[in-house]
């Protein structure tokens, strides 16, 4: 075939409608994006420099040198190791998910956001991506405040002395802390504006410096003898607290004293610590596992580098933290650990080692977070999920650096540093990261549960059990750390999810929800056993045959209100023969029909077929439409008459370019089908001189076929007069009614109101009355009686009908309509048993072998019936009439349609119904 050698589907971050515009354009300042497989930003980083180095530096950050003693001092060695084990257990499960997703295809710029969004779709990806961006912003603020804290430990003025001595010249206080943080942040901004490559080249040198400082910390207990220290902190406005403490060197007694917890007052926040608050601070060391993933846009081979580099970096940092925890708990008094964050400097063989290490690690982590956050924001802007507010963030420099996104991020971090102390916002950072980790596990879990054939990651050391355990672990620890922050972050996430769902962004990434829905629906369809159907749970499942939507949109909308949660299918027959065509022309039409469904806002499926005739195509659709227990039980057709149809596209504002409804995006996604293309696809309505593609015999044959197949049949007429969904509701105070005539008007002698077809009429009218738009309408049932039967006769009929309505729980008023004069016209001097042509006593099709009234009498009778309907139902919003069976002889099709035309002429929206299904039940 012609398309068997098409290229692989691309993975670029662009939407369907912009694909052709952006192809080959590369990275541009107006926010356009690269095409599949080609990145405007050069990829030059390998596993070591692109993943291992930034991940190690991010995980060391401030905790390594400034909070190791804080964790061990408050929690003790045993609980500290437990915290470390829990934290690394959580991130290990997340790393398995990251490795699986990152090895399932090409990973572009945006890191974790890219992986989540391309796995879960735009709604989940955009909302979680923005939350992850906020987590990176808050983490950057934590690192900046940690660096300021380290600077003040060396250069800050002693709170217990009124005179500055030596290098302690920097005044301390809340606003001074914010000022120093702003200066540090300005330095980070300058580096990030130059670009990520400058940081990546410098990061290796920073790692060397941090490694030297770490080695000095590890060897210092072997060279430094025990020492005593005096530590002072400002207590209150004018007081100073002085603590005497000791560095003991390796000592078993010190180790035993530091084994258990000793939670006490934190001197920086003046709050008593607990397991949750200490864990929140300690977990900030675990927020760097995606530092390498966030550099995916600069990695040569991200699918290989991200799993390999992340696992190596995490294992290395875990070993370092375990050694440090044991080291400090064996050598330092608990008071020293609690009251001095920078105690490593006091016990080091050469204190400047620690000072340089702290500065380098904190500054590197801050820059890494700023760069990573800006890349996430840039990816969000390119995907256009949040519209204009983030649009400027898509602008890049000539070298590909998203400098506007960097400025956005810098401004937000500047707001975060107003917290003043890193311990204050550590809980928020941890909650944000745990939520992001849970999202990554969710993405992997969804892909695994969806059982999509294209989910084939080369990394196999994961399962849905690890993903689910990772989600549960993250959510539990979130609420252990801070229930308020956790609840608030989830609420914000859900709000973002709803906003994106309402915006309905179009993407070519695929929607995991569709894969999951398909997987589950298939199972439920197999469980939906037609042998277990019961009349109590019957609902209309409709196949509406549409020739041209331009003239049928009102009927499409009306049937959507009539389906009551049942299956609704729009069917269309394209005339043609596949034998003489090179390809199937139907497949290209589905997108336009689905776009029409979106524009109209109806909940319907679309089923198209190619057939030499409309009748044969309708038979195909009646047989094969639906699956299992979800198959149409009712066929709906437009009425067959000679009137010229109106063009609905010229009436509804949603089909008018530039209208308010069109600009508000009522139709949702267009998936590449704009309004002009949609209008051009459907041909203009049939004119006066245009021949009909469907003969009267074929139309009546379709009705007969449906009845033979056991399907209920509805014919809709004058629905173009029905108010559209866009029209304002009636405001003249007139009563809105739905009229039901449950008697076979072509057979007055039948007189039955409780046969299957009549009950089907009542049920359909009740279903319509239950829909939101028609709930205010009043249901009226017309009881036609003959005065010749006497008062007692029609009163008995009314009472019987009223009792039936009560049993069926149908709220309706009964209207008595005398029609003696009309019945006389029907009899025309014949015996009362005489019937209309082709209509049997039981309503079933049978040969017309009995006498018929004269044609003039029949015409007068039909006109009389029409006049009766006009007299009593002229003001109704819609009418439900009994549809007699079509004649068995096809030569009488014209006469049958002429009778229906005469009865319903000028009535307004009318639905002729022939029901074969038992739909009512009086049992509980």
User: Mean pLDDT, nearest integer?
Assistant: 81
Q: Report the β-strand fraction as a percent range.
A: 5-15%
* Class of secondary structure makeup: alpha/beta
Radius of gyration: 38 Å
Query: Given the C-alpha coordinates, what overall shape results?
Result: elongated
Unreliable residue stretches: 1-40, 663-668, 725-729, 829-851
Please, what is the oligomeric state?
Answer: single chain
* Strand order, sheet with most strands: 7-6-5-8-9-14-13-10-11-12
Number of helices: 29
Biggest sheet architecture: 10 strands, mixed
**Euclidean distance between termini CA atoms:** 58 Å
Number of DSSP strand runs: 14
Estimate percent helicity: 40-55%
Describe the protein's architecture and organization:
- One of its GO terms (biological process) is cell volume homeostasis.
- The chain is α/β, with parallel strands linked by helices.
- 50% of the residues lie in helices and 9% in strands.
- It is built from 29 helices and 14 strands.
- Strands 7-6-5-8-9-14-13-10-11-12 form a ten-stranded mixed sheet, with helices on both faces.
- Strand 6, helix 20 (590-600) and strand 7 (605-611) form a beta-alpha-beta unit.
- It is elongated, with a radius of gyration of 38 Å.
- The model is unreliable at 1-40, 663-668, 725-729 and 829-851 (pLDDT under 50).
Keywords:
single chain, alpha/beta, disordered N terminus, Solute carrier family 12 member 9, cell membrane, two-stranded antiparallel sheet, AA-permease/SLC12A_dom, transmembrane, 924 residues, elongated
